[in-house]
Amino acid sequence: MNWKQDIIFVTDRLTKISDRYYKYFPYLALLLGILTIVFWERGFEFIRWVFIYLIFVGITTLVLLRFAKNLPQENKVFSIAVWCIEFINQNIYQDLTLFLLPIYYQSSTIFSANVIFVVVIAILSVITTFDDVYRALILRNKATQFLFYTFNLFAFLNFSLPVIFGIRNIYSLYISISLSVLFLAPLFVDYREIFRRSKAAVIIGMMLISILAISLSKGFIPPVPLKLVTGTASTDIDRLKKEPIKPFSSRTSKGLETIYCYTSIFAPMGIHEIFWHVWKKDGVIMQKVPQELTGGRKEGFRTWSKRTAAGNDVKGKWTVDILTDGGQMIGRVRFTII
Description:
The chain is 53% helix and 22% strand. It is an alpha+beta fold. The protein has two domains: 219 residues, no CATH class; 111 residues, Macroglobulin (MG2) domain (Immunoglobulin-like, Sandwich). The strands form two sheets. Strands 3-9-8-5-6 form a five-stranded mixed sheet, with no helix packed on it. Strands 2-1-4-7 form a four-stranded antiparallel sheet, with no helix packed on it. It is elongated.
């Protein structure tokens, strides 16, 4: 009986401590989230530590969840276990959103559709900071919890898989959403029932629907970890230095023979990606030029495409969209010929 008394004593102490310091927990979570941004600024090598952190929290959550289900709800240990599950999940997902926010922001293109994904991450990071809002919007039912957890895990895996394994963006999207649905299923479906035909069919159906949703919305997702370092139009290219000659954002067509679009794209070591320079004049596609990227250069992967100007009507507002082979926008170069 002594061990039962010890458990009761510990749970009473934990309850009193949590009641006393509960109001400070959101600020603690915010501090931990800010530390993740500091880790991001230090470089990609910290991504492995985040993976370990995720695995630890995932195992802890599943263990606590199974432990809590076997306890009567009036038991004090049950309430402590549920509280721990909620706090751990809230904390980790706030850390994730604050960790991912600068990553997706740097890969996004201003005034493009993929900024919406960054705004969603920013909103979620605010929601997870405040307990009452988090409970009202996220913990209200299993559907909202599943959507929230799946979105965050997808965003993390979509960034991590290319960094660690060199997976191309188009494949990373589909692998990430499939793994997110599969990994999170045990949180909402008893793991002993997953292999039953009906439960397995539901999970497979959810995966297929998620893949379809990603396929239709991939233009709204920044192509992490790729980002446009430099993009400009120029009249020529220094082939030895691989730098633009006489870059411009606006110029006359007089004496202009060839227009070059120069881009420098950052990508971590091990990444190989196919992307396109899509030339548009006044919103109309004029040409598409394929490029092949190899990551690992601090200054970014430098390349260019060109369009003949002599004898053509080149006057107008030009954009060159830099798109992955899957249609995600890496960046955009704008210039005007008058």
